[in-house]
Amino acid sequence: MSGDRETKLHPPSKLQAGLWWGLLIAVVGNILGSSLYVRHGGCLHGETDMYLVVHLSERSFLSKIICPHVADAKFYQCRQLSHVLENLDAHFVYWCYLAGCPHFFSVVTFVLLLSITGLHWRFGVTRLRMDPLTLLLLVALFWTNPNVYLAGMCLRAAKIAAAFFVYAGMCLFLSRMLRVAGEGGLQIGEPDTPKRTIFLYASLALAACFSDPQGVFLVLLLSGGALVWSAMLKSKEALLAALAGGAAAGLHTLFRLWLAHVLVRKWCGFESTSAFDQSDPANLHSSALEYLKQGASLSSDTMSFGFGNLQAWVFGPVLLGVLAATFMVRTDTATRWTRGKLKHLGILIGITMLTLFLANVGMCALMVARHPPVAWADTTGFHRWCIGSWSLRSSCGSCKTAFHSTGEWSGLGWPCCWRLTWNPCQPTAGSIP
After folding, report:
1. What torsion, rounded to 10 degrees, do the Cα atoms 168, 379, 431, 24 define?
2. What tens digit of pLDDT does each residue of 129-145 get?
3. Which of 250, 305, 306, 396 is the most exposed place for a label (fewest CB within 10 A)?
4. Is residue 410 included in any domain, yes or no?
5. DSSP 328
C-alpha cells in the first residue's frame, strides 16, 4: 500500500505531462469558446462607454492612469495598475472594431484567468504532486462557475488583476516552502532566499495593492499569515516575505494619502475625494452585526457557485469536516532549522484555511459597510468578490496531499478536492451582463 502511494506521488513523465497540458488546453479552450459564442460579442455597460472615450482620447497617458475619469476622482481608489490594464482593453476593443470584429470583451481578463489556471495546474502537479485528472476536473469546475463563464465584460480589470497577483504570490511562497517526497508526504523546508526572490515578493505585493483596495487587504492578511509561519517554523523566508508584503502595503498607503491626490489635481484637473465610503462611523458599532451577516451571505453565495450552486447547508458540513480533519494531520518530517520534528503540520494549514475564510467574510462585510449597493439583489452578481479564495485553493491542496501521502484520513482525499473548488473568483465588477 505504501508503495502505491509512493508511485502516485511521482510526477508524470514528459510525455504524460505534455498530454495532460494538451487536454487542459482543449478543455479550457472549449469552455471559453462556448462562452464567447453564446454572448455574441458581449454588451456595452454604461460605465464602459465613458471609460472607452477617455482611454481612446488624446489626454496624456499618465493622466489617464492616475485618474481616468471624474467618477474615479469622486470615489478615488488609487488603483493605477488596473487603469493601465483597462487602457489596453480599450485599445484592443478599438483595434478589433477597426478590423471589422466589434465586441466589448476584456482581453486582459481572459489572459489573467488563463494565467491563474496555468499557475494552479503547475503548482498542483509539480509541487503538490496531485493527480492531473483531479486538477483537470477542478479547472473545469472553475471555468464553468457562472461568474467566470460569463466573465470578461470590458469594464474594469481591478479585481482580476488583484486576484492574479495575490495568487501568484501565494504559489511562489508555498512552492518554495512545501515539497512532496515519496512516502515522506508533505514536507516543509527552508530554502535559500536570494535577493531576487524578495524583490519578486515585493513586486507581486505592490502590483496587487495598486490593482485594487482588496489587494491591499489581502496583502496585509497574507503578510500576517507569513509572520505566523515564521514564528512557528523559525523561517527566514516567511519573515522576509511578510516584511516585503507589509512594506508594499505601507508604500501604497503613503502614496494614496499624500501624493496621489496632488497628482490627480495637477495632471487631471480633478479634486479627488473618498466619498465612496458611505459608512456612518457613529452608527457603525450598532450595524456591525448586520454587516457581518451580509458579508457571510455574500461569501456563502459565491462559494455555492464553486459547488455547482449547492446551498450552504449542503456543502457547509463537508467543509467543516475537512477543516476539523486538517488540524489532526501529523507528519514526521524533520526540518533543517527547527529542533526536533514538526508533528502537527495540519495545525498550520488549518489555521491558514480558517483565517482566510473569516477574513473573506470580514472583507465582504467591510465592502457592504462602505458601499451598501454591493449587497443589493440586482448587483450582488457583479460585485461579490472573494479573491482570497485563491490562496485557500493552495492551502487545501497541501491539505489533500498530506492526507493522501501520509495515509492518515485518506478517505478525505476527495472531500478536500471538492474543498478546492471554493473558487468564486469573479473576474471583474460587472462580469455578468
Report:
1. 60
2. 778 888 888 888 888 87
3. 250
4. yes
5. T
Helix/strand number for the chain, H first, E second: 20, 2
- Could you tell me which residues come within 8 angstroms of residue 45 by beta carbon, excluding any fewer than 6 positions away? 104, 153, 154, 155, 430, 433
Q: Please say whether the beta carbons of 141 and 306 come within 8 A.
A: yes
Q: Count how many domains the chain has.
A: 1
Contact 291, 368 (CB under 8 A): yes
* pLDDT above 90 for 46: no
Reported as a single tens digit per residue, the pLDDT across 211-241 is 998 899 889 988 988 888 888 778 888 999 9
Say how far apart CA 74 and CA 397 lie, in whole Å: 42
Which structural domain, as residue segments, surrounds residue 223? 2-12+42-420
- Alpha-carbon Rg of the chain, whole angstroms? 22
Instruction: Give a yes or no: residue 32 inside a domain.
Output: no
> Is 26 domain-assigned?
no
Per-residue pLDDT of 394-421, as tens digits, reads 444 444 444 444 433 333 333 333 333 3
Give φ, ψ of 119 to 5 degrees: -60, -45
Domain assignment of residue 30, yes or no: no
The model carries a pTM of 0.81
Q: Determine the residue type at 397.
A: G
**pLDDT tens per residue, range 237-258:** 899 999 999 999 999 999 998 8
Q: How far apart are CA 145 and CA 228, in angstroms?
A: 33
